Amino acid sequence: MHVSPLETNVKVRNGRIQITNMTKANIVMRLVLWALLLFTLIGPFFLDYGTITWSTAISLTLGNLKMMFLEPAFHQITFATALKQISMTLALAFLATILGAVLSFFLAIFSAKNLAPSMVSNGIIAFNSFIRAVPTVLWVLIFAIVAGLGAIACVLGMMLHTIAYLTKAFAESFEELEEGTIEALRASGANWWHIVWHAVVPQSSSYMVSWIFLRFETNYGVAVAMGAAAAAGGIGFELFMASSFYYDLHEVGMITYCALIVAIILELVSLRIKRKLMAKS
């Protein structure tokens, strides 16, 4: 089929020919991105800075950054307290992830189009789309109104968004299973639960573990933020106290480094797990 040069964009990169179809969606997306870039560049010139002295503002900002990241230190809390609070943050993220993963598995097998009726599947997909459309932070704040500020609201909000997120991920992995395996089990007289436990779970376990750990990393970041916003405790609450109550920038920097180190460790563990799962598969 002949393709008009106006409809494609042919590029050669690293010896490979790349063809990009200039569809209406691509054109609209590029226009939106260019418009956002233009507004970002020219927007600061239309702001009213009033009586701000730029030299003083820049000097104070650099001084604050120096205190936070070049001179970190604990003053109000100890290193042992910081470790305890980080453990609490990890516990909140772990609890929300595990509870969400268990419930997501059962919702996923009823939302996978090759395992469940279309009416049930479409209903669960629509419900999950609504849950995912609302940010996790907002769900936590909604539960804080219902259940009160604290760890319970934090876990419930993260768990709800985790359920919607993992249900979609699990269902997509279930739908990628070979149809021949499922049909063979059905032909041999296996019931629906036998198909799930003997075909779906073994072939999708590596994907599920990978998605669960990815969501755990996300929930850790949310738990840090919600420690202050929803009074859930943990290292996020200590960060809020150091920055807003004590205004101790040295401690803010030290707490930030501690939270960052834990996030890097989680990322390294995640990469190692993914490599092992890929090697097994």
Automatic annotation (TrEMBL):
Entry keywords, A to Z: Cell membrane, Membrane, Transmembrane, Transmembrane helix, Transport
Protein name as annotated: ABC transporter permease subunit
Locations listed in the record: Cell membrane
Signal peptide: none
Regions crossing the membrane: 27-46, 90-112, 137-160, 220-242, 254-273
Family affiliation: Belongs to the binding-protein-dependent transport system permease family.
Single GO cellular component term: plasma membrane
InterPro entries: MetI-like (IPR000515), MetI-like_sf (IPR035906)
SUPFAM superfamilies in the record: MetI-like
Topology in the lipid bilayer: Multi-pass membrane protein
Organism: Lysinibacillus mangiferihumi
PANTHER family: ABC TRANSPORT SYSTEM PERMEASE PROTEIN P69, PHOSPHONATES TRANSPORT SYSTEM PERMEASE PROTEIN
Segments forming domain ABC transmembrane type-1: 86-273
Pfam families: BPD_transp_1
GO biological process annotation, one example: transmembrane transport
